[in-house]
Amino acid sequence: MTTVLILTVLVLVGIAIWQMTKIFELSQLRADAINGLVASDEDNKNNGYLMFAFLIFIYGITIFSFAKYSKVLLPSAASAHGDNYDTLMWVSFAIIFFVQTITQALLHYFAYKYRGEKGKKALFFADNDKLEFIWTIIPVIVLAGLIIWGLYSWTNIMDINEEDDPIVIELYAQQFNWTARYAGDDNVLGDASVRLIDIDRANVLGIDEADPNGQDDIIVKELHLPVGRKVNFNMRSQDVLHSAYMPHFRAQMNCVPGMITQFSFTPIKTTEEMRQDPEVVEKVKRTNKIRAEWAAEGRPNSEPWEFDYVLLCNKICGKSHYNMQMKIIVESEEDYNKWLAEQKTFGESMSPAE
Ligand SMILES: [Cu+2]
């Protein structure tokens, strides 16, 4: 891969130097010698047709990409705010797509229609107030609409409050794994700081032992969430910038060393329900077909895959960034409570001080 990149760069540098020498040569020629190099009507016509060919190429590649790659998009959102978020994205896409399709067609058509021709002179006028007004006011209205709608959605999504009795969970990022901490019976996370980390005593998150709120906290390596219940996440990082990304819930927040960042959402579909979603069923089928081929070739990672929600890191944070993930299980409140009751609290799991 690196060799291909280096070769590409060398070829591009070569082309750039060749073009520059040509420009230099042209600048040295006398006026009468240049005449032989001016494009003829035939050249201009050919370039006009090439413009059309390029237009067909970009339309073709767009249709091809839609047909081939639409299926790799995320399935429908599994969080309460997700639909609103997706609508905003799709409306923005639709507007960009519509405008781009029309402007590209006009751009290339005009390049053909007004190609150079002997004796033809371009019409020149300095300004046209009406035209300028139209092409300014339309984008202003459309963009203002999108931005105001976006800001409104953003404010709604980022309104992190204590209403509706949310569960409080900490997501702790470090190179290269995630740890989750539940706030326990009191639903208040104990104070914590990276300076208090004590590996010898299994205090991996640096929870302040003196803080009574921390004693009932529960530290786990798998995130369980009850369906329909709001969750307030507090994110911390131990080392570098990470980003907690939960794509199926349309949630992402940076984890920044030295500060606590927040995100809140309500999961609305259990893992089981999501596994029944037609888009997910289709994706699992596709993936397992590839995996079966891999298995036949004896390649690793070829065991059949089952859908699960994931928490991923979405900031390139080092060598094993690609594999920094944690499984998320959304289940009924009953199953969730059962699972939580089986977990040890921080107070129980700490090794005694020596
Ligand atoms: Cu990371």
TrEMBL record:
It comes from the Bacteria. GO terms for cellular component: plasma membrane. It holds the Pfam family COX2. The lineage of its organism: Bacteria, Pseudomonadati, Bacteroidota, Flavobacteriia, Flavobacteriales. It comes from Croceivirga radicis. Its cofactor is Cu cation. This is Cytochrome c oxidase subunit 2. The keyword Ion transport does not apply. Binds a copper A center. The chain crosses the membrane at residues 6-27, 48-67, 87-112, 133-152. One of its GO terms (biological process) is ATP synthesis coupled electron transport. Subunits I and II form the functional core of the enzyme complex. Electrons originating in cytochrome c are transferred via heme a and Cu(A) to the binuclear center formed by heme a3 and Cu(B). PANTHER family: CYTOCHROME C OXIDASE SUBUNIT 2, CYTOCHROME C OXIDASE, SUBUNIT II. It is an enzyme of class 7 (translocase). Residues 164-342 form the Cytochrome oxidase subunit II copper A binding domain. Its EC number is 7.1.1.9. It catalyses: 4 Fe(II)-[cytochrome c] + O2 + 8 H(+)(in) = 4 Fe(III)-[cytochrome c] + 2 H2O + 4 H(+)(out). Keywords: Copper, Electron transport, Membrane, Metal-binding, Respiratory chain, Translocase, Transmembrane, Transmembrane helix, Transport. It is a multi-pass membrane protein. It is found in: Cell membrane; Membrane.
